[in-house]
Amino acid sequence: MNISKREQRVLHALARGGALRVERGPNGKPLSVDCVTREGWRLEDGDMAVFRRLVRRGWIVSHAGGPYRLTRDGRLAVRAQPDNRA
């Protein structure tokens, strides 16, 4: 599967326990997206374009209005790396 570097960084953050928090407008459509790591840091690569691609591919999903988390397919799409700091 062809995955951009930005998508890969977001998927790694989600695989390590992070989440995508989506702010929605009055019509229910997403206005902004924040990718937050498990340590509480904000990841700059988690923007609306990356969010839409990950949702369209079925790699992230939200349950009961919570933050978006990685699916099983998303975990399989992540390339193995020793850590996400490089």
Quick summary:
The chain is α+β, with helices and mostly antiparallel strands. It has 3 helices and 5 strands, in the order H-E-E-E-H-E-E-H.
Helical element count? 3
Counting copies of identical and different chains, the oligomeric state is single chain
Low-confidence spans: none
Give the total of beta strands.
Answer: 5
Indicate the proportion of strand residues.
Answer: 15-25%
The ordered H/E elements are HEEEHEEH
Which of globular, elongated, flat, extended, rod-shaped describes the shape?
globular
Topology of this protein?
Blueprint: H1 5-15, E1 19-24, E2 30-36, E3 42-43, H2 48-57, E4 60-61, E5 69-70, H3 72-77
Antiparallel strand pairs: 1-2, 2-3, 4-5
InterPro entries: YjhX_toxin (IPR018654)
Pfam family, one: YjhX_toxin
Structure in words:
By secondary structure, the chain is of the alpha+beta class. The chain has one domain. It is 31% helix and 22% strand. It contains three helices and five strands; from the N terminus they run αβββαββα. It has a three-stranded antiparallel sheet with strand order 1-2-3. Strands 4-5 form a two-stranded antiparallel ribbon. The chain is globular.
